Amino acid sequence: MEFQTGRDSTLIQNNSDGNYGGRNEVLIGATGSGQQRAGIVAWDVSSLAGQYISIDSMSVTFTIFRVAATTSWGINLLNESGVDWVEGTDTSGATQPGTVTWDFRQEGVLGTEWDLGGARGGPAVYGSMGTLALTDGVDVVNDKVTINLTAGSLPSNVDTLTEIMDLWTSGGNTGLGIYGGQAQWGLDSFQGSIAADRPLLTVNYTPVPEPTVACLGGLGLLGLLRRRRA
Q: Which pairing describes strands 52-67 and 184-188: parallel, antiparallel, or unpaired?
């Protein structure tokens, strides 16, 4: 099953109270002054709730918006921490109270702070689910890159893809954080005008079995007997 609706934003260290949730791209990596940027992305997977026995594989596909140099980035599972982040709608980096910024999941709301490094590490993330490596001059704007997600190195409560989907479909869907490298790159966001270029999550799963014919027949017979006794 494919998912291509959700929310995302860029977090920028040297504009730590600014929101970028309405932009057409998510920017990642160091700025020219060495200040850091991180990206966060979460997909709406609510339609999967109760539909699977196990999650067998997951991958994400991004459309490249910018490549500035050869380097690699980590794809990290964000820790829900009991507090969700709010995408916001700003495009210029203005302060938009209650929306996600470098410092806060919800700007200005006490108890919603990321750790001191923004949504990059420490208590903000469970750990890495994969790595994206880009090569300048080979990977170019409008290319699509796919990363297979793994969970084996994560803490025991989220060390399977099934446990992660359980978390995401039960109200703990804070998604993924993308960070690392000193170069700059970017991906098309959910606000982009071309739907096919928006972040894509692909999930392969074992579905909950449909009731068997024999089971349905038994239920029908039970109903008939009850009616006769009445």
A: antiparallel
Q: Which of 44, 60, 106, 98 is nearest to 81 (CA)?
A: 106
Distances (CA, A) of 72 to 61, 99, 183, 188: 15, 28, 9, 18
Determine whether 215 is exposed, middle or buried from the number of CB atoms within 10 Å of its CB (0-12, 13-18, 19+): exposed
92-141: per-residue pLDDT in tens? 999 999 999 999 999 999 999 998 778 888 889 999 999 998 888 898 99
Closest CA to 178 of 7, 3, 9: 9
Query: Rounded distance, CA 169 to CA 25, Å?
Result: 26
Sorted by sequence, the CB contacts under 8 Å of residue 35 that are 6+ apart come out as 12, 13, 14
- The pTM assigned to this predicted structure is 0.89
Q: DSSP secondary-structure letter at 79?
A: P
Which string of DSSP letters, residue by residue, matches 104-173? BSSTT-TT-B-BTTBTTSGGGEEEEEEEEEE-BTTB-TT-EEEEEE--TTS-GGGSSHHHHHHHHTTT--
pLDDT of residue 216 exceeding 90: no
Instruction: Summarize pLDDT for 15-49 with one digit per residue, the tens.
Output: 999 999 999 999 998 876 778 899 999 999 999 99
